[in-house]
Amino acid sequence: MFRGCRSSFAAAAAPLFRRACIHCTLADACNPQPAPTPTPAPGRLPAEASPDLGSRSRFASRPLPFSAFLTDGFGRQHSYLRISLTEKCNLRCQYCMPEDGVQLTPRSQLLTAEEIITLARLFVREGVDKIRLTGGEPLIRPDIQHIVGRLRQLDNLKTIAVTTNGINLAKLLPGLKTAGLDLLNVSLDTLVPAKFEFIARRRGFHKVIEGIDKAIELGYEPVKVNCVVMRGVNEDELLDFVEFTATKPLDVRFIEYMPFDGNKWNFKKMVSYQEMLSAIRQRWPELHKLPSEDSGTAKAYKVPGFRGQIGFITSMSEHFCGSCNRLRLTADGNLKVCLFGNAEVSLRDVLRSGATEEEVLEIVGAAVGRKKKQHAGMFNISQMKNRPMILIGG
Q1: Of the chain's two ends, which shows fewer C-beta atoms within 10 Å, N or C?
Q2: Which of the 8 DSSP states describes residue 34?
Q3: Are 64 and 365 in contact (CB under 8 A)?
Q4: Interval 215-232 mean pLDDT
Q5: C-alpha closest to that of 274 among 222, 233, 229, 243
């Protein structure tokens, strides 16, 4: 709905946008440009309800172009929404959470399940067809199965995915699969139990392996395994992770170490994609590259004869900003249009103010319209103030 145009009530929306934006450093960025007079706004969105937004709009059933609200100034169409369900986690991974922890947002300021579904429905009707649930650790949220089930009911939502540390996966996955979970990413940075405890600052290696095995048993193929590679920590396990794909339907994705608040990033600890690829090809010179999706984040490779495959997420050394189709919604309801950007806008506040669906879309459209062509580069990012990864949601 509301596709193909940016109908605007800019004079009314701009003050609301300025109140909502908590990190923006561009003085003129929060002033949406005037546009033609809008269609009269439909009913207002209650904060604690998830109304059928489409039933109020005469545009809902019309096959229209991809939403202008989700299209940025460089023509990138954002059809992928990542929603963080919680800031809490049962691990304390070094690259994700500062050693001394983080200050958690009061529960009353976090999105409720109904608010999550309300916003998800609005994004889906504007063109989002994939939603990934993240955290913190999403599987520690008690209503995770309920949320997946509600998302599954949204028309035109093709894919529901979860990124998890795997600790509770074996226990919860059967119910999540029944509720409608399509895809699964499991974070695992080492195949050595003692090193797992060093990286995660908690025990749990065997539970993660059990969760991966359960996912394979339930027919998830491939199961994506996310491995953040850090020099001096786990770069010596690259070949072991490739071997891990020999007999299992896994897609192991090696992720370049990225800077976030409190994770003590420095360039010397980052192992680049080319360095990883070179080390793996010394062992398997027959490794070949696979076709990649237009908006995919991973450069995919496969060893002939292996059941699974590997990939590289090269955010630092070879960014893929030009094909980015992702938006992020934090657990406290802030919209981030770039993982590495520090500009945010609170959709929670907009929603709880009683805003109409069109007003919410105006705020979203203004934020998406300000998205930059690419991130600032790893050295500049390392100097920028941003949330710790756990408070963003991968």
Answers
A1: C
A2: P
A3: no
A4: 96
A5: 229
For residues 133 and 393, give the distance between their C-alpha atoms in angstroms, rounded to a whole number: 8
Give residue 264's pLDDT band: very low, low, confident or very high (50, 70, 90): low
For 348, the token pair is: 């929670």
Determine contact, residues 110/332, Cβ cutoff 8 Å: yes
Look-up of token digits 């974070």: 187
Beta bridge partners of 227: 254
Tell me if 65 sits within 8 A of 126, measured CB to CB: no
Q: How do residues 169-181 score in pLDDT, each as one tens digit?
A: 999 999 999 999 9
The mean pLDDT of the chain is: 81
Q: What is the dihedral of CA 76, 82, 83, 87, to 10 degrees?
A: -120
Q: Please state whether 106 falls in left (phi above 0), alpha (psi between -120 and 50) or beta.
A: beta
Residue 198, CA distances (Å) to 9, 91, 166, 167, 205 in order: 53, 11, 17, 16, 11
Mean pLDDT to the nearest integer, 46-59: 38
What tokens does 114 get? 């109904």
Phi, psi for 131 (deg, rounded to 5) = -125, 130
The pLDDT, as a whole number, for residue 377 is 53
Amino acid at 199: I
The total of other beta-carbon atoms located within 10 Å of residue 100's CB is: 7
User: How is residue 142 written in tokens?
Assistant: 């008690």
Residue 133: both structure tokens together? 């649930």
Predicted confidence at residue 384, as pLDDT, reads: 56
Listed in sequence order, the residues at least 6 apart from 267 whose beta carbon sits closer than 8 Å to its beta carbon are 378, 379, 382
Residue with tokens 């059928």: 52
How would residue 115 be classed by pLDDT, with cut points 50, 70 and 90? very high
Contact in structure between 162 and 215 (CB atoms under 8 Å): no
Length of the chain (residues): 394
Greater pLDDT, 267 or 322: 322
Q: Cβ-count burial of 115 within 10 angstroms (0-12 exposed, 13-18 middle, 19+ buried)?
A: buried
- Does residue 245 have a pLDDT over 80? yes
